[in-house]
Design brief:
It is a single chain. By secondary structure, the protein is mainly α. It is built from six helices and no strands. The radius of gyration is 17 Å and the shape is globular. The protein starts with 7 loop residues before the first helix and ends in a 14-residue tail after the last helix.
Length: 138
């Protein structure tokens, strides 16, 4: 069965609950009435997009969705005819392609995805808490 796509409103809700409210994926899935794997997938896509949260109000929904999906499409287009015999091989190849994409110069802006990360996102990163947050197992 093909996966159903979430509306941009639902995607923004997932991102808000995760980043602003610090809910677990399980809590988000329950709150939004979607599968936990769907929550994980959209969070993974957002992370791969290179965007930061909160997304500025002038970022149009189409631009946000395009940014989230462009990395996935770019990588899938390059590996569609390759054969992998283990998940480790696939992950290694994806890592190589992701690094190459992050080093490619933008077409209409100066710099690369990596240079933007270093300039804007990296300084805003906060260290992980010393103790796990949330109600996971022991």
């Amino acid at each position: 069965m093909p996966a159903t796509r979430l509306t941009m409103r639902k995607i923004r809700e997932v991102l808000h609950l995760f980043f602003d409210c610090h809910l677990t994926k399980r809590q988000i899935a329950k709150s939004c009435a979607i599968a936990r794997s769907t929550v994980s997938e959209y969070l993974r896509r957002f992370a791969a997009s290179g965007l930061s949260w909160p997304v500025s109000s002038e970022t149009h929904a189409t631009k946000l969705e395009g940014g989230v999906l462009v990395v996935e499409r770019w990588i899938l287009a390059r590996i569609r005819n390759e054969t992998f015999f283990s998940l480790a091989q696939l992950n290694q190849r994806i890592g190589e392609l992701l690094e190459a994409l992050n080093q490619r110069p933008f077409q209409k802006l100066p710099g690369t995805r990596y240079s933007v990360f270093l300039e804007i996102d990296r300084p805003a990163l906060k260290p992980l808490p010393a103790q796990p947050v949330g109600g996971g197992g022991k």
